[in-house]
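Internal ticket #5521
Category: modeling
Description: The requester needs a full-assembly model to guide mutagenesis choices. All entity lines are attached below as received. Residue total reported by intake: 576.
Assigned to: D.W.
Attached entities:
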Amino acid sequence: VKPAEYDFVAARRRLEAKAKSAAEKLTTVEDAVARVKDGDHVAVGGCLFSRTPMALVREMLRQRRTGLTLTRNLMCTEGEFLMVSGSVERVVTAWMSIGLPWGVSKILRHYVESGTVALEEWSHLALGLRFRAGAMGVPFLPALTMLGSDLVAVGGMKTIEDPYSGQTLAAVPALFPDVAILHVHRADRFGNCQIDGYPHMDADIARAAGTVLVTAEEIIPEEETRRYPERTVIPGFAVDALAHVPFGSFPHECYALYEADYDHFGEYTAAIDARGPAAVADYLDRYAFGPPTFADYLDLFGGARLAEQQKKARELTR
Amino acid sequence: MTAAAACSASELLAVIASRQLRDDTTVFAGVGVPLLAAALARQRHAPRLTMVIEGGIVGPEIAPGLLPISTNEMRAGRRATMLPGITDAFLLAQRGFVDVGFMGGAQIDRFGNINTSAIGGDYWKPKVRLPGTGGANDIASLCREVIIVTAHEKRRFVPRVDFVTSPAWLDGDGSRQRAGLLFGGVSRVVTTLGILGFDPVTRRMRIEATHPGVDVATVRENTGFELGVAPEVTVTELPSDDELAALRALDPERRFLG
């Protein structure tokens, strides 16, 4: 833990100094990501291969950010991309790989076992509480998890004595990331965001972060936001930049809209099995650095594949 | 290695594990064999068992042939009754709503502690980096009772894990409570050779049951530390044809059954 990450006073002052504008937030992905600085602590929304802000990750790769700390509850291919590109120094997560059928991530192993990237491990709930404490504007939250384990020393978590009962509790420190990158189902042009299905930690991350960048599958009229205000989970004044990116998580999933492309994961990991990190570097040339726009990127998968994944998602959530 | 020639190791584990679950309870289940076991229990003897899944899911009905690969993809939440989000799903367990936590483990020690983080070397530069805790540490800390499901191999059952990712009884003799973990703890370890438990006082692991055709000596030979023996060691019943048929129907592609 770095003190700046849980300094609730400084985080509050930064937010107070910032415009909480209800103005238009719509822009391009390029302009949104221009707000990320080298060395920033970037929190990534979604979870594993669900609602990953892939278009924003791709643009961070294209703009060649370096020295980043990357935090995500469960880290997937996006973490591998940013390790291989040399963008990330430190990863804060509870788990990293793609999933059981693809085994332990060889990229994780390569970069962490060599000491190139530091992996700061917290439990899944502890990371959720770090974002929630940040969202609440408090320095820590008491909890009953992570106690007694070796994870305590890794992240430098402290314990606290309950002033009422005297019991030992975990004092899970807040996390105020510099930047949040999120992908949502819908937003109006003022940045009021709606999420379907799994909420993951996005709403807390958006409140905890200093700068919030969002991509949305669909831009809806203001009238629709006002008709269903209970659906808004991130208020527009918390959002700094918004871009309209259909299939913005692909090849990861977006609940009810498209399923993750498991065959693509299989091809990707097979290449890594054969050639190690060099396979990911080639992948980035093909998918991140090559195609100038996200539409060009999606063309590499092809319309038939995208339609097939949409069909599967509809069947799964019927 | 396994007791039953007629079924695979994963099938044996899933069936024996499913029998540990009672009706009218709740279970926190991870993907793979634990989830299969919970789904099987719900189909057979525990229709009012509610599953809670790490991705922030309550009450899913796992469909045959549509087993989830991760805890937070669409298949995991099929026909769920609630999608509270990840943090709040775990907070249900912290509040005490979750009876049983079901989990696997790469390395396990004589007090039931589990390592899924790093093997050998220094934590920051390990010999082998594993994926990490995910929600395992939380499940081990917060559920009323934890049941571990794992293959029984000498290299997995070590005297002391290299890194305590998920705490069970820590160093035994009340150390779990002293660390602030007031609730829960590992009750059983279901393996391919039998069922292990813990001495109620010292919290050291011991043999409580063996699968048919497996003797106590074999279990001990396949364990990397001295395993105690419960006052009464029972023999489990092999998976029935009905149980195996229902289980195989859940995973027709044999994604997790091997």
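Resolution: model delivered.
Comment from assignee: Chain A has a mean pLDDT of 97.
Ticket closed.
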